[in-house]
Amino acid sequence: MEHVDHILIVDDDREIRELLSSYLKKNGLRASVAADGRQMRSFLEANAVDLIVLDLMMPGDDGLVLCRELRAGKHKAIPILMLTARSDETDRIIGLEMGADDYLAKPFAARELLARVRAVLRRTRMLPPNLQISEAGQVLAFGDWRLDTVGRHLIDRQGTEVTLSGAEYRLLRVFIDHPRRVLNRDQLLNLTQGRDADLFDRSIDLLVSRLRQRLGDDAREPTYIKTVRSEGYVFSVPVEISEPRP
């Protein structure tokens, strides 16, 4: 049976929930709704979803709190499209820093949201170059870290797991698959996210900053991801394929 993508809409505005749910269903997707964080948590405990449309401004736990919670828990791999009534770039940056995969400001056309949903799903499932070659080893080792490509998380030398959002994982995989090669922002956008979403210029820089934090990399003197002035970024350590540890 063919899989139909299931979208969960989390928004305190009933009219928006019903409008988006109806539109997504008319365009071949499954859609469910939640009015707040409590309903979202309850729904996720009993149902599998492929993407969450999450409103930023909600009473109680707002979208940023819920996004951070999702990224830290067992639903960390679910892509998130964040909505907000404010168009301030600061909110957009904070949303991406919390782990959102894309951002859409209200008001918006339903067809634009549908296009964003499909683009995020496509990017989330897109395999970085050479994935089929390196994936066989399951664990990729570099510096003080190992990357579990099945669980999609980092493991330090003490065996502690560090969770990654979908966007962080894709960016790290691109760097790992192109070690010691300078990649400019356009190349990183194409390799990690494609050109089908209207992402603002700072999105790659924010992702690099987030990934450096996960790796414990000092932005002023980074060990792993170095900035090449006027050119882009380079992953500066060698990568080895290793077998999973018991």
Automatic annotation (TrEMBL):
SMART domains: REC, Trans_reg_C. The keyword Transmembrane helix does not apply. Residues 137-237 bind DNA. Residues 6-121 form the Response regulatory domain. Keywords: DNA-binding, Phosphoprotein, Transcription, Transcription regulation, Two-component regulatory system. Transmembrane segments: none annotated. It comes from the Bacteria. The keyword tRNA-binding does not apply. Gene3D superfamilies: 3.40.50.2300, 6.10.250.690, Winged helix-like DNA-binding domain superfamily/Winged helix DNA-binding domain. Residues 137-237 form the OmpR/PhoB-type domain. Pfam families: Response_reg (PF00072), Trans_reg_C (PF00486). The modification 4-aspartylphosphate is found at residue 55. PANTHER family: DNA-BINDING DUAL TRANSCRIPTIONAL REGULATOR OMPR, REGULATOR OF RPOS. This is Response regulator. It comes from Neorhizobium turbinariae. The lineage of its organism: Bacteria, Pseudomonadati, Pseudomonadota, Alphaproteobacteria, Hyphomicrobiales.
